[in-house]
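Example 3.2
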Amino acid sequence: MNAAIIGATGLIGANVLLGLLADERYQQVVVLGRRLPQLAEGTHGIDKLSFIQCQLEDIPSLSIPIDIDHAFCCLGTTIKQAGSQDNFKKVDVTAVIDFAKLIQQHQLSRNRSKPWSFSVVTALDANANSSIFYNRAKGQVQQALVALNLPKLMIFQPSLLLGERASQRALEDVGQGLFKLTSGFFIGPLVKYKPISGERVAKVMLQTAIQNELHTAANNHSPAVQIIDNKAMHLTAK
């Protein structure tokens, strides 16, 4: 199998990339991004990685050199980092859709008949009709991806993310501190809101992609669109 990933320098994407490189079932891993992910010397599977340097606005004009079995989109920013709502949407909506279209058009151009999957990270409570801008933007990108009729679309909706980032996010840093004091309260229905590590989200993304590959190989049908919410991710990854 071959994989493509965008957003590989972020909290979730970095863990997805390491998982792809370490998994012997993947022969080649294509990474798209502005900068090459920083990997430790001796990282297992690093020889499988090929890098396509690009800006987000370049995505529609890119070409992928190999067939892709699993595509992973881990793009994400904040209003503070982006500077405005419009710039936020360029990353979390437009670039995500452009990446999905790139993979879709690439597969069609190669007359690929084997089903392939597209995994994307959105957010808990994503809703295109939400009054909250962040949730609305995440819901809008979900709607747009569903409308593309991809062979297999897997949407992952985490709550507050835990883990060390290359760039600081003050609100999330505060949230992580509070979680350490209140983690015992996230039980029963509240598990839906329990903060989750980027490592765990990445692990579930990889597990789900492989599980769907096995279902396809066994001629077992699975939904074309699958939503994996925060509670499911907590219960799935071990």
